[in-house]
TrEMBL record:
Pfam families, per the entry: cNMP_binding, HTH_Crp_2
GO molecular function, one term: DNA binding
PANTHER family (alphabetical): CRP FAMILY TRANSCRIPTIONAL REGULATORY PROTEIN, FUMARATE AND NITRATE REDUCTION REGULATORY PROTEIN
HTH crp-type domain residues: 150-222
Gene Ontology cellular component annotations, sorted alphabetically: cytosol
Domain annotation Cyclic nucleotide-binding: ranges: 19-90
Name the record gives this protein: Crp/Fnr family transcriptional regulator
Keyword set, alphabetical order: DNA-binding, Transcription, Transcription regulation
Keyword Zinc: no
Coiled-coil stretches: none
Taxonomic lineage: Bacteria, Pseudomonadati, Pseudomonadota, Alphaproteobacteria, Sphingomonadales
Organism: Sphingomonas zeae
Length: 229
């Protein structure tokens, strides 16, 4: 691994979850040779649907939304990407989705064609990436049933459980929500006031404990899961 990349990688919180976490030293060296760090501000787009699929990435921090255009021209969020998820489409000339940042995000970005060449030379890396990509696809598919829930409180409860599942806090541990109330509302197709009202109600009912602007502790996951169903 090139020496100038070691500090960045050593401090990467997503390394164990991302593609690079299971690569050999030679595969890592090849990957780091073509990689670069890119930061996205909340609202900034990584790629638009139908655009040339020139880049792929590993998400290091932050949350991205995956959107598709409906027949009436409106945009529908079809999934969320969390740290460790693979971003973009391999072996395709055009992007299948629009991907944008719901929060400030940090990514390791790779030119798609160069990454495909590395995968061709390192079959084990290709198999690992396939597993990672399928896992990411599975996470995205979890999102559609969540949005199909008619009740706003069910959507908010499901999102809280989803974020806790992905960030894996210990039982009873306070963890920092990766999304603001506004970003949660955007992801769920709700008004920010609705999200805040249900968060307050969950706290009053003893389901969660709020700490500051982003801190939350899930006190009763069983009841939250019943609300989310």
């Amino acid at each position: 691994m090139p020496s100038e990349l070691q500090p960045r990688c050593a401090a990467c919180a997503a390394r164990g979850m991302a593609l690079c976490g299971g690569l050999s030293e030679a595969e890592l060296a090849a990957l780091h040779h073509i990689g670069r760090r890119r930061r996205l501000s909340a609202g900034q787009t990584f790629g638009w649907i139908g655009d040339p699929a020139s880049s792929c990435a590993n998400l290091v921090s932050g949350v991205l939304k995956v959107s598709r255009e409906e027949a009436d021209g409106s945009a529908q969020i079809v999934g969320l990407l969390y740290p460790g998820d693979f971003v973009g489409t391999l072996f395709a000339e055009r992007s299948a989705d629009t991907i944008a940042a719901l929060s400030d995000a940090d990514l390791c970005v790779y030119p798609r064609l160069a990454l495909e060449e590395i995968l061709a030379r390192h079959p084990a890396a290709g198999r690992l990436l396939l597993r990672r990509t399928l896992a990411t696809l599975g996470e995205v598919r979890r999102w559609m049933p969540m949005l199909a829930r008619a009740r706003a409180e069910a959507r908010v409860a499901a999102l809280l459980l989803d974020m806790a599942r992905r960030y894996e806090p210990d039982a009873g541990e306070v963890f920092r929500l990766p999304l603001s109330r506004g970003a949660m509302a955007e992801a769920l197709g709700l008004a920010v006031e609705t999200v805040s009202r249900h968060m307050t109600a969950f706290q009053q009912d003893g389901l969660i404990a709020l700490s500051g602007l982003r801190g939350v502790r899930l006190l009763d996951r069983t009841r939250l899961a019943l609300i989310a169903d």
